[in-house]
Amino acid sequence: MCANSNGFLSFSTEDDSSSQSKVSLELNPVGSLQELCIARRCPIPNYTFPVEKLKKYKAEFRVVCSISIYKCSGIGISKQEAKNQAAYLMYKQIEKLTSEDFKQIWKNEYEYKDEIYNDPSLIQNHELLHGIKFSKLALSHESVTHLKSFFDSGAPKTTYLQKIKKNSTASDTLNTILKIEDIILKCLTVSFNSGKVEVMMQVNTIPVIVISGSGKSVPDAQESAARVILSYFKSKLNIQ
């Protein structure tokens, strides 16, 4: 079953995509959903496992797949089966959304975070607190120093800078900055095609940053995506 914040939605199970995409969806619904989110520039799906009492005569698991206001539930005799079902249903829902629907998704993302930010009780009790950065993009002096050092953009030659590893990779620099700022990074490997690897990175700033990177290996693809994110930080902070 699939629902948004206003209630349950019904939709057809007809698949209008190519037969190859249909086979991929049937075999790997979780991976197919991730690829669809990349293509549509949609937030990465979040999977939760509600704690429920199992039926005495049959063990069942339930998984809820969430993307903004949209939620799909999957049920199975294993967690993976339930997750696959939830991902499949979400895929069918997301592929039908229009450009206006996606605008509403991002609008709800902003309003949702603003609501939490302005309500201390929600901040205290919200289970996703540690995955959300509530302020606009504004890095600390320490993070900016790391960023400037990476790009060699006129960072002051201080004793502190001498402790920063020279020739740090983009991945190392990004991880250091996100650790300082307490920002969550999600990185998923989404495809291996003809010796090429593609990964998707999501940084939970406001706005949420979703970047894909590719390379000959997973580290190469991660490095590519990390460099793009650092370049975005540099641009937003007007670092020359």
From TrEMBL:
Q: Which UniProt keywords apply?
A: Kinase, RNA-binding, Transferase
Instruction: Tell me one GO molecular function of this protein.
Output: siRNA binding
Name residues in a coiled coil: none
> What superkingdom heads the lineage?
Eukaryota
What Gene Ontology cellular-component terms does the record carry? cytoplasm; nucleus; RISC complex; RISC-loading complex
| InterPro entries to which the protein is assigned, alphabetical | dsRBD_dom, RLC_Component
> What biological-process terms (Gene Ontology) are attached?
regulation of regulatory ncRNA processing; siRNA processing
In what residue span(s) does the DRBM domain sit? 28-96
Q: What is this protein called?
A: Interferon-inducible double stranded RNA-dependent protein kinase activator A
PANTHER family, per database record? LOQUACIOUS, ISOFORM B
Q: Does the keyword RNA-binding apply?
A: yes
